Amino acid sequence: MAIVGRVARAHGLRGQVVVDPETDFPEARFQPGSELFVERRGAIEPLRIATVRFHKDRPVLGFEGVDAIDGAEALAGCELRVPRDRLAELPGGAFYRHDLIGCAVETIGGERVGVVSGVEGTMGTSRLVVDGPRGEVLIPLAVDICTAIDLNARRIVVDPPDGLLDLNDKG
C-alpha cells in the first residue's frame, strides 16, 4: 500500500481529523466516499471518508463511524494508505515518492552518495532525503540535478552543484 497522508490530530468534537497530506493530489485523493486504510493493533482497517474540507491546504476529514473526539484521537499518528493499484497513472518524468525510496544515488562520476530514505516537499519543490556515509543530504528533485532516474534498476544519477554533497559532511 502507498501512504497518502498522516493523521496529525483530532479536530473538534465530532470525530474529524486534520491530515498532513503525502500526495500531490489531495483534492482528488480525499473525497467523500473514498476508502482509505490504517494499520492499528496489527490489523489493516478500512476507513470511508464521510466529510472533507480544506483548511490552510490540509484536509480535515470525517470518517464513517467516527463521530466523537475519542475515535478521532485514536487515529492520531496513523498513516492513511491506499492499495498501489488505486493510484493514478502519472505523466512521463513524474514519480511517486514511494517509488523513489530505496533507490541508490550516485554522481555522474560514479561516486556513491547513499540511498533515498524519503522525499520531502511538494510537487514543485520536492527534494530527496539521502542517507549516506557522509550523513543525510537533501538533493533537489530537479531535472538539471537528477539527470537519470531508473526505477527498474533502483538507481538515481545526480549532477550536484558544487558544495551540495558537503553540506552535512561529518568528515
Keywords:
3 helices, 2 domains, six-stranded mixed beta sheet, SH3 type barrels, 46% strand, Elongation Factor Tu (Ef-tu), domain 3, six-stranded antiparallel beta sheet, 12 strands, 9% helix, single chain, 171 residues, mainly beta
Protein architecture, described:
The chain is mainly β and 171 residues long. The protein has 2 domains: 2-86, Beta Barrel (Elongation Factor Tu (Ef-tu), domain 3); 97-166, PRC-barrel domain (SH3 type barrels, Roll), CATH 2.30.30. It has helices spanning 26-29, 69-75, 97-100, and strands at residues 2-11, 16-21, 35-40, 43-55, 58-63, 79-82, 104-107, 112-120, 127-132, 135-140, 146-150, 155-158. Strands 3-4-5-2-1-6 form a 6-stranded antiparallel sheet. Strand 8 (112-120) and strand 9 form a beta hairpin. It is elongated, with a radius of gyration of 19 Å.
What is the secondary structure topology, with strand pairs?
Layout: E1 2-11, E2 16-21, H1 26-29, E3 35-40, E4 43-55, E5 58-63, H2 69-75, E6 79-82, H3 97-100, E7 104-107, E8 112-120, E9 127-132, E10 135-140, E11 146-150, E12 155-158
Parallel strand pairs: 7-12
Antiparallel strand pairs: 1-2, 1-6, 2-5, 3-4, 4-5, 7-8, 8-9, 9-10, 11-12
